[in-house]
Design a protein that fits this description.
By secondary structure, the chain is α/β, with parallel strands linked by helices. The protein is built from five helices and eight strands, in the order αβαββαβαβββαβ. A hairpin with a 4-residue loop joins β2 and β3.
Length: 165
């Protein structure tokens, strides 16, 4: 008898909100990291979204930052987006307690409490499709940037300094 695929909470969230997406699988033996997932699935690293959790120390607010797999948020731009110079990345031990997911496959939607702020790097809006974690290593969801913004409620801002032409 064939194994029935498990429907993950992020899929239930997208289905409940009528947001189209596509599922993909990669070997669970794939080494962690956006570059490795991109290679396993035949995509560019930029299209695999890194989800990073930051805290605004002044207020204790937690936020989700989404950048491409080959991108790094620039400190000054991140501070501007969050509205504080006093920010820090959440310690890896605290990420699970906050999100319910392990680092490496944190979905960018479906777990945040009301009022939680999320931010997406503006340059990613130019991509046709983005890959996001599902909370289960070996499973990925592909979604258009506009649908990712809708699902996550993200603010689209410049977080990455783009090289001059």
């Amino acid at each position: 008898m064939p194994e029935t695929p498990i429907e993950l909470p992020v899929q239930q969230y997208l289905d409940a909100h009528n947001i189209p997406y596509r599922k993909a699988s990669f070997p669970t033996t794939t080494e962690k990291g956006a570059a490795n997932v991109a290679q396993a699935l035949g995509y560019r690293e930029r299209q695999m979204i890194k989800t990073l959790i930051f805290t605004v120390i002044d207020t204790g607010e937690h936020t989700l930052i989404m950048v491409g797999g080959d991108q790094s948020a620039k400190s000054g731009l991140l501070k501007k987006a969050l509205g504080s110079r006093n920010i820090t990345m959440v310690a890896s031990e605290a990420v699970f307690a906050l999100t319910g997911y392990m680092i490496g496959s944190i979905p960018p939607f479906g777990w945040q409490p009301p009022g939680f702020r999320s931010f997406l790097e503006q340059s990613l809006m130019e991509e046709i499709e983005l890959g996001v974690g599902t909370g289960q290593w070996g499973q990925e969801i592909f979604i258009s940037p506009a649908r990712l913004v809708r699902a996550s409620g993200a603010h689209v801002v410049t977080l990455v300094e783009m090289p001059s032409p």
